[in-house]
Amino acid sequence: MSSTRLSRRSVLALAGAGLTSGCVRQLESTVSRDERTPLSLSIKTVPADTDATATRLARYLATRLQTVGVAATVVPMSREELLRDVLSNHDFDIYVSRLLLRRDPDFLRPLLHSRYGPGRGWQNPFGYGDLSLDSLLERQRTETGSVRAATLAEIQRRVVEAQPFTPVAAPAPAQATRPVRVDWPDGVGIHSLTGYLGARAVTTTATASRTESTVTPSATPAPTEQSTSATTSTPAPTSTPATTTDEPTPENELRMTIGDSRPTENLNPLSTPFRSDGTLLDLVYDSLGRPVYDRMRPWMAASWEWADGDDTTLSVRLRDDLAWHDGEPITAADVAFTFRFISDTALGSLDQPVPSPRYRGRASLVESVDAASDREVTIRFGDVSEPVAARALTIPVLPEHVWEPFARPTSASWLDGGHVTEALVRNNLDPVGSGPLRVTGTTARESVSMEPFEDHFLADDALDGRLSRFDGGFSFDSLRFDVVPSDGAAVELLATDAVDATANSLSADSRAAAADEPGISVRTSRPEWCYHVGYNHRRPPFMNPRFRRAVARLVDREFLVDSVFDGETEPASSPLVATTYVPAGDAWDEAVSELEFVGDSGTGTLDAERARSVFEDAGYAYSGDGDLLIQE
Amino acid sequence: MISAQSSIGFSPLVAVLARVLGGAAVALALATLAIVGPSRLAAACGSGSDRLREAAPYLGLLAVVLLVNKVARGVGPEVSWALGWNATGVIYAIEGNFVQHVQSLATPALTAVLSTVYLSGYVFLLTFPFVAYFAAADERPLKLTAVTYAANYAIGLTCYVLFISYGPRNLLPGQVESLLYSTYPQTQILTGEVNVNTNVFPSLHTSLSVSAAAIAIRTRETYPAWAVVASVLAAAVAFSTMYLGIHWGTDVVAGVVLGVGSVAFGDWLVGRRSADA
């Protein structure tokens, strides 16, 4: 392992420092045992096809680092390989990627708490450690109201100061759709559980969009009126004439594009490298509760109740007649199993527990889960406030009869040291969940197909209050995700009516192209991720906060928002940018302004001399050739 | 790779495929008439089965290599990532912003021409030799073409498995424009079916075109016009790969070396087997 890392790093050194400024000098410095060597580093990210914004940010940073004498090379990698290197192998210097933002700020705790440094997954991939920050992170989860807000303000001030990673900006997801075909619910993103459940086919689908030129116009109302008023039900079969036959797809299918092909090869909710936002699996796997329009609502649970005088014990009652997609009944034992399983996917069969990295943060809130009866579960939480505890209710519930057999070391245990279970790495391409949609097929790198699960509780039409808007469940006959190689291709497919909407968020360029197409509208929703620069604190010089702060001062957010994002994107100094917890006031402004861009703000042009002096002030020296030197 | 499954999902894919292959077919028909000529073709049909039997082992070799190629491209990326040799940074360090300079020549008309060359022109350049050499009196160029293509694929594929390399459009968005895919986004659905975007070193478009042109120059006595057409077309294909932002200059240089080397290998193999016989 270490030998491959060495060889890869030396290749990078050759690429960066060697070939650009001469191998001889570097060789000399090695031979003469001068312990200070020119810094060369790699910036890992995804290629432009996958996420042009990330690639451009990485390029931006690389060129600014080169200006201050650091041989920086951008290394594009596929999504899953990048996540494997960053989250599992911790094999990186710097990376640029999206950070998934959660509604509740408690997501910062697993992200930055030092206890999570050695583990895998989106838990402190940086290897950052600060004991006083740790205790603040632990404290905020027990607090509420203004007390919690004050603690979170202090946390953010410290995070800005220490720059464990550098947030850049949190763009609004932008999806394109054809309003004449599908009516999407207001106030939520298209590519979300509530988006899909609330989507309705526009009643005169076929007549409005496909036969405009052949059918008398008076027969169809204006499409705009349709898209706003027709929120009722699926089109009656008789209203869909089969006059246009170039579409052999089922009549009432909702057809989406996705840019991310990983779900076509892996549908395991416990996988780290194959998951990002997890929306597809939100459709397939239900959880006890769901955030619906910003409030946590009972979902698989019929109701829940905090024990009297004990705010750490929650009694959950499951809905009656819940079933898995394979027809087996769901019981409280499955729920108890799920919490036990994500805390140890080996179920005690190995020397050490093997938790699911993806849910460690949420699982850590829970002390125990017991099935009190066939339909009742008792959850005991640690010392956490109710809103934070509710996060644990969003963990997908897994069927014990399917997952129990995978609680064993992988067949490649000679490779992974026997500390990984089959459960964490299996593809799970035929997932047995209990969600409103059921997977009917996958074609590697091409598509995922789903259909409504007729035994789902939403299909019953007898829901009370808050969930009644989802009565009947998913309203189309099927749902299909087609993988597209790029945003541009997605817009093209939409323009030719081969799909109904894009699940992938469009980059600024494609968004403009989509807006120019007749019949296509672009919908934005609130930020769900934040682009950030991550540093590997396990390697010099990134463990030095002064170095990270100097790097952070190379980032001109104002310029990037205009040139890489769409100009309306919110620049982000705090990872809590999408919450109401970003502090205001002098102390915060001062902390932020200390990291001001070293150059002409808004132009991206670095003041090279001043920027170098920032690194010198941080204790770094330069060689005669202008290379920044570090102690290896 | 263009399965029925995807053609149902992507009717635009069928449309692009029809246009690309249609363009190549028209060129093929015209060139057959003008360069080979009806009389030569008629004569060839008589003695064709003999020549085919002669060349069968070589054509068979090509078929096997193409089959292996198809299978290996499925698993290739996983092997590449396991090896982890990402050459993108090295290539960029060698040539810098060369492709960006090439793209400074861009005009809409040139983009249209070179996109056609890249897609249809390339297919025509590679398929016409089989028609032409089938109709020629000497079967050697037919054998040579088959072996040379096979060598191109075999060595190219080995490089694809060994190295991960992304093209300029994937490393330098905003500097290098993805001209083919931004002008004709639907074409990416087609090329995405055929190629994986981690496989750019070397440029197989370049190497196969160079091979075809090199053999065309050898047979200039039989088909003088083809020698000229193939040379111009091969140069245009090689240039288009850079102009469209798909390949690095380094990929193209390596492609030229591979293309010429494959012809030399083909010469050696066909010569040796003829000597044995």
From TrEMBL, chain B:
UniProt keyword terms in alphabetical order: Membrane, Transmembrane, Transmembrane helix
UniProt entry tagged with the keyword Nucleotide-binding: no
Membrane topology: Multi-pass membrane protein
Entry GO terms, CC: membrane
SMART domains: acidPPc
Record field: transmembrane: 12-35, 110-134, 146-166, 224-246, 252-270
Predominant location category: membrane
Phosphatidic acid phosphatase type 2/haloperoxidase domain location: 148-267
Localization annotation: Membrane
Domain of life: Archaea
Descriptive protein name: Phosphoesterase PA-phosphatase-like protein
